[in-house]
Amino acid sequence: MSKYSMHLLVCGGTGCHAAESDAIVCNLRDELEANGLMDSVQVILTGCFGFCEKGPIVKVMPDNTFYVKVKPEDAQSIVAEHVIKGRKVERLLYRDPVTKEAVTDSKNMGFYKKQMRIALRNCGFINPENIDEYIARDGYMALGKVLSEMTPEQVIKLVKDSGQRGRGGGGFSTGLKWELARRSVSDEKYVVCNADEGDPGAFMDRSVLEGDPHSVLEAMAICGYAIGAQNGLIYIRAEYPLAIERLKIAIDQAREYGLLGKDIFGTGFSFDISLRYGAGAFVCGEETALIHSMEGLRGEPTVKPPFPAESGFRNKPTNVNNVETFASIPAIILKGAEWYSSIGTEKSKGTKVFALAGKINNVGLIEVPMGTTLREVIFEIGGGIKNGKKFKGVQTGGPSGGCLTEKHLDTPIDFDNLIAAGSMMGSGAMIVLDEDDCMVSMAKFFLEFTVEESCGKCAPCRIGNKRLHELLGQICDGKGSLADLDRLRNMSLVIKDTSLCGLGQTSPNPVLSMLDNFRDEYVSHVTDRKCPAGQCRSLMEYVVLADNCVGCTACARVCPVNAITGERKEIHYINPDICIKCGACMDKCKFDAIYIR
Amino acid sequence: MSTIKIELREQDVAKIREICASFNNDPQELINVLHKCQQHFGYLPAEVQEVVSAELTVPVAKIYGVVTFYSFFTMTPKGKYPVSICMGTACYVRGAEKVLDEFRKELGIQVGETTKDGKFSLSSLRCVGACGLAPVVLVGEKTYGRVAPDDVKGILKDYEQ
């Protein structure tokens, strides 16, 4: 990288990619070419910077200038002003939402200040399609160290001592898992990377694979050495074409450099990786289901034991870890167990990546030490709630997690605290909800997801979740009763207790936590037949505002069911018993005389 | 099974055989085989599954079980321009449902259906990971971000000629 005096890093994550970051790269290169600067300034398409809200992003190094919402046609000013004249392009700089001042150095942005990047250490810094850039940032050093200086037992001890727990949702100790797989005796073992990120709203695994694929490959090889496996498999969603593409490139390059394949570093250790494609099934995040899917079967889970560490893929001992878990491993090996375990809380070590989405100002991907509070994440890093609305809740852990409220804002986030609060870490999705979101509709939305994704193997999950969904639907339609709320709770508890796998055991969590934290809202749906957030259509009432109505009859003429009566130049009336709440009258009225009550 | 009856041409059968052979006719590669077949045909009609069944020596019922299990596989042909609306949580709370309703209304079809002229098909999918652009709509390979119901007509217009 030394040849160049300046680097223009353009975000090539899926979000920015969709917003034409390719065209930005092209235009920047054209501009540089036209000015004869191709030899001194380099344009790099990197992985995700995390700050998706303001994408596409262009970062100028070495001065850390952070340009947001860049359009392809802005390439000209970036090159003419910044690169040639050394003047920052003011209008593209990120502005602090409070002070309204332009931030010239990205280190001073609220979004990045509190973050600590381990799993995402290379995302947004390197070109993921060039192995040399990964190597320049100490890439494959950890693998070298492990193969030349450490025994497999030492590797496992180091990972165990680091205290890292699996980032996929379960939170099981990574080192312990490796140890179990090592102990199983077999001629063949497998290392599997679970990249089937099915949790809606979570995109950390995708971002790591797109932005830093080599870190996962390196960690899988380390794991292979530790447990005694020679084969690695990455199970990845077919819906992530960009990540698949970059993984393929990375695997080819690693093979070419002798970092994968036979006799790595001349140590006699051989390890190779191939890809398996998922086909869209949330339940495949469960490791036994994932293994069945890799064997060409329906992705249905089976009872544990036997654990995959004893009998997994092709009935051989198999170690399954998640993308984010693997991505941190090289850093842990290089910097040591003590360093990693000094970060985080007593029982949850290290950092965690969260995907912030929903009604939050700074949608994006962040990585913070375990123990950071929800308030810091949502209000300091996330920049607070969109459009100045009031914070209502945050759903952590996706459809398997729970909804936390204002009273949980100062809870330090870690595996155990989230469970104690009735939610879970899950993969780390955080969906922020504001006052306009109805908690009955949200619970119904999550159940709809679970019903669709339930594999159907066990009755509690297959039938129970469907019943839960129906009950929630009735409540949204104003047909629920107080007894239904108890029914919801009882059924939820039974489903949790009796389901076969993690999907059913956690699917009622949103219902239970919302019932607990927003009971008033549920009660008002069933007793007053009102939706306080104004979301449930059946519970809305369209009303004429007498002061504004001029009696033009436009609404009455457009009403498809003749629910509106009134003579010309007289105040009209909407009969709530006939009204189907289509909203046509409100769209038609020029005098803002119809509102929703 | 699917109500559409199709007749596979000789070269289609040859293509399926070629795909299966490229995976050594290994039953464990079934999902990869189906991915390739769907890439080639656009969907997986019963007739295609029957050929795969014969090649991999897996009962056709098992294959049907796999095809219907995974949301990525489909037994009905997609339109020339498949429209997918992301219904992930992030998109949902930012109004994806209203966008989906608008597409339903404009196209006159339900989710999972294709317009009579074969031009558009409508589907919802779970999280494409572009949550920063929520709500997100995909038409073929093209991504539309921050879509409002009012934008729907304009998006469809891009594909009229």
Describe the structure.
The complex is a heterodimer of chains A (597) and B (161). Helix content of chain A is 39%, strand content 16%. Chain A contains 24 helices and 20 strands. Chain A is globular. Chain B has two domains: 10-69; 81-157, Glutaredoxin. Helix content of chain B is 43%, strand content 11%. Chain B contains seven helices and four strands; from the N terminus they run H-H-H-H-E-H-H-E-E-E-H. Chain A binds chain B through residues 14-15, 18-19, 52-53, 55, 197-203, 206-207, 238-240, 276-282, 293-299, 314, 355, 357-359, 363-364, 395, 398-399, 429, 431, 433, 437, 442, 445-446, 449, 452, 455, and chain B through 26-32, 34-35, 58, 65-66, 69-73, 87-90, 92-94, 125-134, 136, 143, 145.
Q: How do you describe this structure in short?
A:
The complex is a heterodimer of chains A (597) and B (161). Chain A is built from 24 helices and 20 strands.
Q: What's the total number of strands of chain B? A: 4
Give the low-pLDDT segments of chain A: none
Q: What percent strand of chain A?
A: 15-25%
Helical segment tally of chain A? 24
What's the name of the CATH homologous superfamily of the largest domain in chain B? Glutaredoxin
Of all chain pairs, the largest interface belongs to: A-B, 53 and 37 residues
Number of strands of chain A: 20
Under the CATH scheme, which architecture of the largest domain in chain A would be assigned? 3-Layer(aba) Sandwich
CATH topology of the largest domain in chain B: Glutaredoxin
Which stretches of chain B are poorly predicted, pLDDT < 50 over at least 5 residues?
none
The level 1 CATH classification of the largest domain in chain B is: Alpha Beta
Number of domains of chain B: 2
CATH class of the largest domain in chain A: Alpha Beta
Order of strands across the main sheet of chain B: 2-1-3-4
- Gap between N and C termini of chain A: 62 Å
Cα(first) to Cα(last) distance of chain B is 35 Å
